[in-house]
Specification:
heterodimer; A: Immunoglobulin-like
Chain lengths: 790, 296
């Protein structure tokens, strides 16, 4: 505990430092002049003092300066810089608009970044992408996907061919906090993991924090993926959309009151169900699969100090299945997320900005099964009520203080089954689980000197698992004994208070290079119950309890950051070490769904990950893009698995490389090339087999039996290496004042690499041999998509 | 999870390809495997099959049975909470090789089943009785033991079938079958084996067409319906073997079913649970009820 007290004392010193001089505050908001969208992370720099600040998530900034005349330079990649002269003899508020640069010509840029953030910010292990950039990347099925796009960044690995799951620095898929306008998205995928729930038409930008997590974030061990939705054009009405091979999108946006309020509504739906019908046999005509999602956002400027945002998401995957061999058997299976976020920005004083959010999010799964006059349905899922208040205090010219609180009420629904089989009514429910999660935090971004900067923070969290809850008791054979332990309303079942210190340090070597280091301690109180590497709709989230301790991770990272040629190129080399405790795995063949004794299926252990990440990015010019390389190792160790010996984590990938190059040929044509390479995933393969369940078929006069596989060491084999190259070409039609459209032609896997999806074995009884076959999912796969805007 | 297989298979069917690859798997340590069963109705289904594990890519797809073992099954006497096994009551099971020598006509049938031990003349199982299995291999260098219990028989109460007319014609087609049994208030575990054959005699549990292991967690204490989703053909003779089994045996066959269907992209490597000491496998006591349905 000594380290916590020391850290708290340090923070106290920082916060109580007497900042006050006779200074004034320059504050304001930055927006895109063409759409009215706020600009996140733009640089506001006072040339005379060299002091600078970035705009926050809402485009707001503030600087404390002595009275005087100043030139304020405002810059943002992809936008025309502006220099504003001000006379600071009182608090000054600037609400400025930046005009986008022409996308054709010398200054082709990746939009949406502060130019020297890579070097000057204390933040490290952090990457950003704009929705616009994601759309330029080659795609499968003509559908741009941000979760696939982020796996092209160093330190973030994809789960494998086609999937949207991602793995950060040796962490599992449930250790990533995925936020859409601050609302948690528990299952980020459609189509069983092949596409993500994020409609790029509605996405403004995204940020991934894979280490050095500041104190205002928490709840997951490995990373934060924060996706910000666009606000909608507050200048004019615009309609955009597109059609790919499997889905179409439409987005409408416009001002409700010019410059004051705007809306955005975006809809996407697949037409796999319609396209597949002609190819289905008559007996399967009743079968259909589709997904859709709806994004909605509105915002209102309620005066000079207040702004209100309302955003929401609703998405569903639906599978209707009628058995081709028994038309009395029907399955209606669906799942999806719903989120709603109400945010209130308030400027108390120019120095004190706040955002308060009320958030509701839900993930649910339904499964209606009918056979003849019988039928039952099963429901499961979880929902959160979440209130969050964040304050940014531009305390002094060297201090930017953030503090706030977050309270979440979790409700987990492991399973409700109802229906009737014959004359027997089924009405069963696994007791719902409730938990309170509370956090307060404070951090200080302290510019200690010209060279040294520090971001120190402390997050205090508490998780309280509470009743009402009925815990049935089970015997050693996993059979109910009939004894049920009952917990009353709000009765504490397990309480975990924890402190999470966070520290980021930046030493500026020169204007173009710096060394950064970070330390974080994080806890995670809710866990995904899955036996597979991918996330599935039936996977359940479970809360910590007396038996299931919170997951814990400590991470240290150190890196060298260097920009070249006036910030046109940026490079970094980061190395990290992460130790994880209370990691969860499930026993082989565990029953995860509708299991009241799920905790007894769990085993607990630890994990370790380390690696080196190299990154080089060219941000401007006709030719731009990046190359990233990661060398890493990730292990797990469980006393009850693998004879207690450490083994490679499923997504341990020694080498991982990605290359993304975009080139603008002329006003009409743009091309993007992507190459990825990764060491094959670690897999467990059978080492032996044995015959079992023997019999004699008296009709064929042949013995009958089944071979059962026997496994030994976990993840001791490697799938073949993964690599592929993709290319896309975008053709822009001549733009008119009212209409613009573009065709995107993509070829996925241009050299037709057979990348492993899974391996299976087939015993050839005639030839007396067992053969291994590798199934690969996507051969060379061309696709086309059409996008429009008017 | 099975619900997900349909669309996933759809995707894989539409887009996936496969190719043969070469994988090197090191030799593994040999382990003994025992499949032992005793039941209350069919003496031919009382047998013990002893085999060994086989290196995965070894070109040997035989049963790999173990000969020359000494195999005994002893019925137990339950007194209070204890079960006593009297050596005087033990029954020796003989290798099918020995039986084939005595009855040469069976040689062609029993030939492939080296490693199977049985004694249909002396060994009959009884309900509510415990049994102990003792195996000695290599003159006692390997000792394998196991225990099981045959619970009381839970009979199939009734059944019905409905033959669906073929589309637009008067001819008959698929047969949909349902049966009922009475499950008591206690916790019960079941294993259902189904065979489609005019022959009512079952030569080993592996001869059946399908299997299901289930318990009464959801449907308990009442007249329980069992509906076959998959229809049979008109004219089929359906042989139903509904066995009431113990919990450990249930856990074994449940994990066995998962191991048997474990494949594809989301396969979970796992080892089946075992109630045998010194080997992999199960000694299962089946309280069997049998019903034959001819769907005319």
């Amino acid at each position: 505990m000594t380290k916590y007290y020391s850290f708290t004392f340090l923070l106290f010193l920082v916060f109580t430092n007497a900042f006050a001089q006779n200074k004034y505050t320059l504050s304001g908001e930055l927006r895109d002049s063409s759409s009215g969208e706020t600009l996140i992370g733009a640089l506001v720099k006072v040339l005379e003092t060299n002091k600078a600040v970035s705009t926050n998530t809402y485009g707001y900034f503030a600087l404390n300066l002595p009275a005087g005349k100043y030139t304020v330079a405002i810059s943002y990649l992809g936008f025309q810089s502006r220099n504003i002269k001000i006379n600071l003899d009182k608090n000054v508020s600037l609400n400025l608009k930046l005009a986008p640069k022409s996308t054709i010509g010398k200054e082709i840029v990746i939009k949406g970044e502060r130019e020297d953030k890579n070097v000057r910010s204390t933040e490290m292990s952090r990457v950003e992408l704009s929705g616009e950039k994601v759309k330029q990347l080659p795609v499968v099925f003509g559908e741009p996907d941000i979760l696939k796009a982020i796996t092209l960044l160093p330190g973030i690995k994809s789960g494998g061919e086609g999937g949207t799951g991602f793995y950060v620095r040796g962490g599992g898929p449930d250790q990533n906090l995925i936020l859409m306008d601050e609302a948690v998205v528990y299952n980020p995928s459609h189509l069983f993991g092949f596409l993500s729930v994020f409609n790029t038409d509605a996405v403004k930008n995204l940020e991934v924090i894979k280490g050095g997590m500041p104190a205002n974030y928490g709840g997951r061990l490995s990373s934060i993926l924060s996706v910000n939705m666009r606000e909608g054009n507050n200048q004019k009405f615009e309609y955009s959309g597109g059609a790919g091979l499997i889905a179409s999108r439409f987005c409408a946006e416009g001002p409700m009151k010019k410059n004051k309020s705007s809306f955005l509504i975006a809809f996407r739906r697949t037409y796999i169900d319609i396209l597949a019908q002609p190819f289905l046999p008559k007996t399967a005509q009743g079968n259909a699969y589709y997904f859709y999602d709806l994004n909605l956002k509105m915002n209102w400027q309620l005066g000079k100090k207040d702004k209100l945002y309302l955003s929401g998401y609703f998405g569903r995957d639906i599978l209707d299945f009628q058995s081709p061999i028994n038309k009395n058997v029907n399955l209606n299976f669906g799942w999806g997320n719903a989120t709603a976020t109400l945010r209130w920005n308030h400027v108390f004083k120019p120095k004190l900005f706040s955002n308060t959010s009320f958030i509701y999010n839900r993930y649910d799964l339904f499964n209606d099964f009918k056979f003849g006059s019988n039928g039952f349905n099963v429901r499961s899922g979880l929902n959160d009520w979440n209130i969050k208040s964040d304050f940014t205090w531009y305390a002094a010219d060297k201090h930017l203080v953030k503090f706030g609180m977050n309270y979440i009420f979790h409700t987990f629904t492991p399973g409700i089954a109802s229906g009737a089989i014959g004359s027997i009514n089924i009405d069963q429910e696994i007791s719902k689980q409730y938990a309170h999660e509370f956090a307060i935090y404070a951090l200080d971004e302290w510019q200690i000197s010209q060279r040294w900067a520090l971001n120190a923070g402390l997050r205090a969290v508490a998780f309280n698992r509470v009743g009402p809850y009925e815990q049935p008791e089970f015997d050693s054979d996993n059979q109910k004994t009939g004894v049920v332990k009952k917990y009353g309303i709000n009765e504490s079942m397990a309480f975990y208070p924890r402190l999470e210190p966070r520290l980021n340090v930046n030493y500026l070597i020169s204007d173009e290079s710096s060394i950064k280091a970070s330390y974080t301690l994080t806890y995670q109180f809710i866990h995904l119950a899955t036996t597979s590497g991918a996330q599935f709709p039936v996977d359940l989230w479970v809360p910590s309890s007396a038996l299931v301790k919170p997951q814990e991770a400590q991470q240290v990272a150190i890196g060298y950051f260097r920009n070249f040629r006036n910030n046109r190129y940026e490079a970094s080399a980061e190395t990290y070490y992460k130790k994880m405790l209370n990691q969860i795995e499930f026993k082989p063949f565990s029953q995860l769904f509708f299991n009241a004794n799920l905790e007894k299926e769990m085993v607990f252990g630890q994990g370790e990950a380390y690696g080196l990440e190299l990154f080089l990015k060219k941000k401007v010019g006709r030719l731009n893009g990046w190359i990233g390389y990661t060398w890493s190792r990730a292990y797990r160790q469980f006393d009850q698995l693998n004879q207690g010996q450490a083994y490679f984590f499923r997504y341990d990938r020694t080498h991982d490389m990605s290359l993304v190059i975009s080139y603008t040929f002329n006003k009409k044509w743009t091309g993007t090339f992507v190459f990825v390479y990764g060491t094959g995933n670690a897999v467990t393969l059978p080492v032996a087999r044995y015959p079992y369940r023997i019999g004699y078929d008296a009709i064929t006069n042949e013995p009958k039996f089944t071979f059962i596989d026997l496994y030994d060491k976990i993840n001791s084999f490697r799938l073949p290496d993964y690599h592929r190259a993709d290319i896309s070409l975008t053709y822009m039609h001549k733009k008119t004042s009212k209409w613009e459209s573009a065709w995107n032609f993509s070829i996925y896997n241009i050299y037709n690499r057979a990348n492993p999806y899974f391996i299976y074995f087939y015993p050839d009884l005639d030839k007396l041999e067992v053969k291994a076959y590798m199934v690969y999912l996507f051969p060379i796969l061309p696709s086309v998509a059409w996008n429009f805007k008017f | 999870m099975k619900n997900l297989l349909i669309p996933i298979l759809f995707l894989i069917t539409f887009f996936s390809c496969e190719k043969e690859i070469s994988i090197t798997v090191p030799p593994s340590a040999m382990q003994y495997v025992v499949e032992a069963s005793i039941n209350s109705r069919f003496p031919l289904l009382n047998y013990v099959f002893i085999s060994t594990t086989i290196d995965y890519f070894k070109p040997d797809l035989s049963l790999n049975g173990v000969k020359n073992a000494e195999v005994y099954i002893t019925p137990g006497i339950i007194i209070g909470l204890d079960t006593f096994y009297n050596l005087a009551n033990r029954i020796r099971l003989y290798s099918v090789d020995t039986i084939a020598k005595i009855i040469p006509a069976l040689d062609s049938i029993l030939g492939p089943f080296s490693g199977v031990y049985m004694n249909p003349v002396q060994l009959t199982g009884n309900s509510s009785t415990a049994y102990k299995l003792d195996i000695s291999i290599g003159n006692g260098t390997t000792i394998i033991t196991a225990k099981t219990f045959i619970p009381k028989v839970i009979p199939i109460d009734s059944f019905e079938y409905f033959i669906e007319p073929k589309n637009g014609s008067d001819s008959l087609g698929k047969s949909f079958v349902k049966f009922w049994f009475y499950d008591g208030p206690e916790r019960n575990n079941y294993r259902l084996a189904v065979n489609v054959s005019p022959d009512s005699i079952l030569y080993g549990w592996g001869a059946c067409k399908s299997y299901r292991t289930f318990d009464d967690e959801v449907l308990n204490n009442g007249k329980i319906p069992y509906t076959f989703f998959r229809p049979f053909n008109q004219g089929d003779t359906l042989n139903l073997y509904l066995s009431h089994i113990g919990r450990k045996e249930y856990l074994f066959w449940q994990s066995f079913g998962k191991a048997d269907n474990n494949g594809g992209p989301f396969a979970t490597p796992g080892t089946v649970s075992s109630n045998i000491n010194g080997a992999i496998g199960s000694f299962t006591g089946y309280a069997v009820d049998y019903k034959q349905i001819i769907m005319k």
